[in-house]
Fold this protein.
Amino acid sequence: MRHIVVWLLVSALAGGCGSEEEKKIELRVMTYNILVDLDNPDYDDWTDRRAGIVDTINRHDPDLIGLQEPVQGQVDDLLESFPEYGAVHHQAGFTDATILYRTARFSKGKVNIYWLSPTPEEEYSLGFGNIMPRMVIRVDLRDVAAGRSFYFINTHFDNTAPSQDKSAPLFLERTEPLAGKLPVVITGDFNSNLNSTAYDSLTSGAGFSLKNSFDLAPEWSMDTNVDPRPDYDTDRRIDHIFLAGGDFACDWWVVDITTYPPNDRYPSDHFAMAADLRF
């Protein structure tokens, strides 16, 4: 009889906790450099580009977005279009790396920022050969339904050499301790293609390194309205969705190459990328 009671207690506890599969987090993540709102003869004004950016986000419906390059007005415009998201960025309004997250799904915890420089705790610091300050922003998120926490990181490496090569080791150094605690999802414009030294450092180091969601996907896809269908060299992509510290799977990876009126142009000088993740 005692054995039966013990078995019933164990079964009840197991059912209350749920299976490991039930605890897994499934989410869609997007990284998107939306092009800063400045005059650029090769692209439409933000007032025209905004609709294309909004449509791109709306069609892919991500749970988390890492934005690069927006100014505060662009962030405000997107929040107006998507009130279901909350924004995380530097409190002083330095929005070069901004995070958007679904407030109904995730509870927001601690936010941490450091700068890609020899003095990472010094705000707006330079020193890696970069022409403007670049930062890494992290938010601690908890998936309310799954009851599990993880880190979400977004960054924008500078586009001047050798800043990428110097930023990569610092990024790994700061990310490794986090990966020892919780899963880490990373978005960013790393200005580093697959043939670059920085990319090799991030993904192929002898010690700690990052996984690319693209490499975990069974195949990749392209959303486009361009005819004929454009060629896309995946080795040249500089925007990435990286992963660390968890047992990750990527079921779907897409790059969006869509033009919009009024001039049938791309809404940014970067293409949005999205991935469906499980961990």
In short: The first strand starts at residue 26 and ends at 33. The chain has one domain: 28-278. The chain has seven helices and 13 strands.
